[in-house]
UniProtKB/TrEMBL annotation:
This is Phosphotransferase. InterPro entries: Aminoglycoside_PTrfase, Kinase-like_dom_sf. Residues 83-238 form the Aminoglycoside phosphotransferase domain. It comes from Paenibacillus residui.
Length: 293
């Protein structure tokens, strides 16, 4: 998708009265591999975001934003009927910068978003809605672990790989999980901060899962303050119906599943963070060993 095509869409939106005549295509932002994302300016200020992507992605994300209209997500202004693009609100601030303390923004995330998630049906399966769905939540996590293992390789001992792959079935052996519609990529790279205050959450990858998945994903999405104290302090903000986090061993093991997958992501995209994540892995592994002895 070239800038010429994006300009053509902008003209179309102006002609339809969806955007003001004075709006201009401002700059291209980082987006999905297949898609393009542009800010649209009005009177020298970014006001909108134009996202161009595949029809399935556009349809899923637009439906997600409509479902959670009025929350911390950007307001959706227009969806192309052919699902080639959509336009949403530009949120002032910066992603993954000036975040303040992790316990504070995690608490804000729980209050403004996770506690307000809506239940969904898991009849079709669990996981990201634009991928083949798993028949259970443990199966989804096991697939993520297998994918991460290929990336991690010999960085971790073989024993670690072996016990991690057994965790999903052990954690959820007796749980009757409720399915919810989740963001699915709920990390600091998609959080907009302004003066250390969480102002918005962008770029959902809609999925079906338990709400605490997004909470733990967010916790592990930055290498700072990956401690039990930080997590417990923020988890108190979660509604009790969403996660019984007072089971110490289960809590530790769920964090380890997320950390394992995060190490794989770190190797692929953020290798400079690897020493901190390996330090966190040792810390949480020690907590697990203490809990099972």
């Amino acid at each position: 998708m070239s800038d010429v095509q994006a300009q053509s869409i902008l003209v179309q939106l102006k002609n339809q009265g969806i955007l003001q005549p004075a709006c201009i295509l401002d700059r291209e932002m980082s987006g999905t591999t297949a898609g393009k994302v542009y800010t649209v300016g009005f009177r020298d200020e970014p006001l909108y975001v134009l996202k161009i992507d595949g029809p399935k992605h556009v349809e899923l994300v637009a439906s997600f934003l409509q479902t959670y209209a009025g929350l911390i997500f950007p307001k959706l202004y227009f969806v192309d009927p052919a699902h080639q693009f959509f336009v949403y609100e530009y949120i002032q601030g910066t992603a993954n910068k000036e975040m303040g303390s992790k316990s504070e923004w995690l608490s804000a995330l729980a209050e403004s978003l996770i506690n307000r998630y809506q239940r969904d049906s898991a009849d079709q399966g669990w996981g990201w809605l634009d991928e083949p769905l798993a028949d259970s939540w443990p199966s989804f996590l096991q697939q993520r672990i297998l994918e991460a293992r290929d990336q991690i390789g010999g960085l971790l001992p073989q024993d670690d790989h072996d016990w991690v792959k057994q965790l999903p079935e052990a954690i959820y052996r007796s749980d009757n999980l409720q399915a919810y519609l989740l963001h699915g990529d709920c990390g600091v790279h998609n959080f907009i901060f302004d003066s250390s205050v969480l102002r918005g959450v962008i770029d959902p990858a809609p999925m079906v899962g338990p709400p605490h998945y997004d909470f733990l994903f967010a916790f592990c999405s930055s290498p700072d303050d990956l401690t039990m104290d930080t997590l417990r302090q923020a988890a108190r903000t979660l509604h009790p119906s969403l996660w019984q986090w007072d089971n110490h061993r289960s809590l530790v093991e769920e964090v380890l599943v997320q950390l394992y997958c995060r190490i794989a992501t770190c190797l692929k995209y953020h290798s400079s963070h690897l020493p901190e994540y390996l330090e966190a892995w040792a810390y949480w592994s020690k907590l697990r060993n203490e809990a099972i002895t």
